[in-house]
Each structure stands twice: as C-alpha cells, then as structure tokens.
Specification:
4 helices; disordered C terminus
Length: 104
C-alpha cells in the first residue's frame, strides 16, 4: 500500500469512506487480522469489518463494522465521530507497521 500524506492528514481529521475503503481493501488477509487485533488492543471490540461497493453503483463505497456481542453490522455513518477517528488512526499506524522492512 502506498500512502499519500495529504490524504492521510485529511483522513485523520475527518472520515473519508473512499480512502478507508481503498486502504482496508488494499490489505492482505493477515494485515486485516493484525489491524483488527490492534483495534481490539485499543479497546475497540470490533471482530469484523466489511468494505464493499455494489456493481450497480461502483462509486459508492460502504464499510460495515461488527462488534462483539452484536450480530448486526453497523454502517460507518452510524458510528460516532470519535470512534471513527480512532479506527482511522489505528489504520494508519497499522499501515506503517505493515510497510516497514523487517530488519535483523
């Protein structure tokens, strides 16, 4: 995943579903699992994130979050701003961890 610092700064100040969608869907399965683990360690009890778009409207992106103890997925726009910004900040931290070379 490549990072654009202007978009990163924008994303940390407000939630941009298109940018979140691109970054999250750009992660491998193991990166997604590690990201969800980081969210849980930070006290956010998310156990599943699904980002998708409909073929009929590919420009419209969606993100659904499923929390522990709740079988229903919650759309991103139903979460409070503080929760979204915390999720975003951890996404950027996760991205920098995943893109750093492993040095011995």
């Amino acid at each position: 995943m490549q990072s654009n610092s202007n978009n990163d700064y924008k994303m940390e100040k407000q939630f941009d579903i298109n940018l979140f969608y691109e970054k999250y869907n750009g992660m491998s399965t193991s990166e997604r699992k590690a990201y969800i683990s980081r969210l849980r360690q930070a006290g956010i009890s998310i156990h599943k994130i699904v980002c998708f778009s409909y073929s009929e409207a590919p420009g419209i992106k969606h993100a659904l979050f499923t929390f522990d103890g709740n079988n229903e997925s919650i759309p991103y726009f139903m979460l409070d701003r503080e929760m979204l910004l915390k999720i975003v900040k951890l996404l950027f931290k996760a991205e920098t961890v995943f893109t750093q070379p492993f040095l011995i």
